[in-house]
Request: fold
Amino acid sequence: MDTTKKELVKAYRLMKSIREFEERMRSEYQQGKLPGFIHIYRNQEAIAVGACLDMSNGDYIASTHRGHGHCIAKGCDLDGMMLELACKQDGFCNGKGGSMHIADMSKGMLGANAIVGGGPPIAAGAALTAKTLKNGGVSMAFIGDGASDQGTVAEALNLAVVLKLPMIFMYENNFYAEFTRNPKPEGQIAARAGSYGMPSVVVDGSDFFAVHAACRQAIQRARDGDGPTAIEAVSARYYGHYEGDAQAYRDGEEMQRQREEGDPIPRFLADSRCSALDADLIREIDDQIQTELDGAVERALAADDPTPDKLYTDVYIHYEGVLR
Reply:
């Protein structure tokens, strides 16, 4: 199935929104305006957008510690994200999640996760819910290459195959697990996942069209009741593990080459399938994104902090009338 102009416009808007959001977050963080740690998603925009473009609010994703891009790709609004990153009362998680635990259940975004490999079991649970309710929903777990070695991921792979869950395992191979170069050759992660008994493919993570085609097929397979799929999207990390990481462990020349060759946005626009996106349209979209982002930042930094009494809320869930 070809990508329509409407889908191309949406894809560009989402990828550029992620790019501008992340660069703005770097700037605000460097000025001391954002608390905690942030982990930048730049250069992996095509993975999140290609993965989520065919998903609805009724589908679920489980994210990683590098979750801003996943949020935007799944439809979370910039205002709510900014409020949460600034730890304000009106953020998605009432200012208690921040960057590394941001979530928006209304969009099917089950949360970023500071636990390496913590997302796949959650996504498996969401997939089981969709299968049990027979609502046609699918679930996707984003997994870093470092997390691919975790037992939680192995258990989720096994469970997804045994129960034939409508689930996609999206491995983002950006070559580094925190500060350690991934020693596994490209494709080995997908091969390992495939050994559990599901289709597995390797795609260029900087090529939106390759990611989207693989995810569209995997999502349709899941909706049809044919079970899980594993996808390994390979795209070099642009910045360090966290904002402020000097990346002394990376070769400078190699990193520069990867940055230049692996940028998904100019590659997307250079593709002949994007010929309908003329310069005026691109400029209009870019201006809209900047206006939205400026407003979101301004409102978030001026918003109220949680009051001290909020420390005692959102600690436990009370199931009234259920537990006796």
In short: The beta strands are 60-62, 139-144, 167-173, 176-177, 180-181, 200-204, 229-234.
